[in-house]
Amino acid sequence: MQPSTSETQRALCIDLDGTLLRTDLLHEAVLALLSRNLLYLFVLPLWLLKGKAPFKREIARRVRIAPETLPYDERVLEWLRTTSQRPRVLCTASDVLLAEPIARHLGLFEEVMASDGRTNLGGSAKAAMLVERFGTRGFDYAGNTLVDMKVWAHAATAIVVNAPGRLARAASKVTQLAGHLARTPPTLRAWIKALRLHQWLKNLLIFVPLLTAHRFLDPAAITQAAGAFLAFGLCASGTYILNDLLDLSADRVHPRKRLRPFASGAIPIKYGLLAIPLMMLASVAVALAINPVFLLALLGYCIMTLGYSFRLKRIIMVDVVMLAALYTVRIIAGAMAIDQTLSFWLLAFSMFIFLSLALLKRYTELEGLRTSGKQKAVGRGYATADLPLLQSLGAAAGYISVLVLALYINSEESVALYSRPQMLWLLCPLLLYWISRAWIIAHRNQMHDDPVVFAATDRVSQVIGLLVVVVALAAL
């Protein structure tokens, strides 16, 4: 969109949220505030009673959004770079405390107009200020929502960005349409990535009590376990979205996590905020259909996940213990779903093996940061100097899980369940090999961000998993 000679005298006014940015700055600020302290959730309504402008100012005073990490619409940026001969104005309803750092970072604007704690610069207020500053038809305006119609009614031309065609047609009825940068709706692939459907693999742990109790031929137990798997999957997807929304700033400085749908702006934050309660309600409905005891386990998992997302993931070592507990609680829930008594040996083995995997996950993240030249993990309690210690702790936890397995093989419970329990000894070298290999791969910085995904996609791990099944069947 190259401007004509007559256009060069007019100011080019650009909206921020949803236009220049592929996100909403107010949503970002609220989430950043809540990620610091969840208790702000009770304060936000009180601020809102003061009005929109004071509400935005109270939030803006307490958070910092790093401009260099935000997802910008590259089409708009390129357009701004080619219109340097015109006065360019960032005109937004976001608070000036958040808008000005963005303008300074980009270096593409000569002026910033934004909410100031007294006036909410949106809709009619924005239109009045632009008319007062540049006169009717004395500016071009780029926006993306229906409320921008009030501004376009006074603009010389309208540039519609990230909006459907019907908004562009509506804008063309009140002023000249200079351009339409169509919105790219969230793709199915983006939603699959946001819901982390591949992470549902972790919920296969729910079937472990079914298998270890040798009830895999019980139709009722299989149905209950399958329902529990679905309930945990829905709940997990909801919490994954919440975790991603609360972790936006940290994800955007991570070499791989910055490509996540919400961090990259591929899916708007408002869609995520809508998806969370829908997923949770569906999960509770499925859990109620199984049994009340299982519902309690699911709620316990949800509370633990929320605690991890809001606070515990920032506390060194507490985060990995919580991750291990979240794996283990899936096994506990699986037992509750089929009304099966929990085994001490199974719980002990689970806690140690999953602690090793949790430490492996943290080790992998830190190794990636060290490779990229960073010293500390944003939003975590770790530094790259902790890598040797994490490696030692993780390998030790993995080997202890093998010791627990060996003690179980020699126990009365094993003899009662298996006709040839001595065959189970073959599991120990298989598990020792897999744990050792996983840590060597992580040491070489070749491990996937999530060890569970690695285990599911790695060919050697798949072969070992098949051998484990063969050995267990041979021991029956």
* Rg over CA atoms: 27 Å
Reading the helices and strands in chain order gives: EHHHHHEHEHEHEHEHHHHHHHHHHHHHH
How would you characterize the largest beta sheet? 6 strands, parallel
Task: Give the mean pLDDT.
Answer: 90
State the helical fraction. 55-70%
Model regions low in confidence, pLDDT < 50 over at least 5 residues? 1-5
Cα shape: elongated
Terminal CA distance reads: 72 Å
**How big a fraction of the residues is strand?**
5-15%
Strand order of the largest sheet: 3-2-1-4-5-6
Number of helices: 23
Count of beta strands: 6
* Structural class determined from secondary elements: alpha/beta
Descriptive overview:
The chain is of the alpha/beta class and 476 residues long. Helices cover 60% and strands 8% of the residues. It contains 23 helices and 6 strands. It has helices spanning 16-20, 25-36, 40-48, 52-60, 74-81, 96-106, 124-134, 149-152, 165-172, 188-195, 208-212, 219-246, 248-252, 261-264, 269-290, 292-310, 318-337, 344-371, 387-409, 412-417, 427-443, 451-457, 459-475, and strands at residues 11-14, 88-95, 111-115, 139-143, 157-163, 176-182. Strands 3-2-1-4-5-6 form a 6-stranded parallel sheet, with helices on both faces. Strand 5, helix 9 (165-172) and strand 6 (176-182) form a beta-alpha-beta unit. The chain is elongated and about 90 Å long.
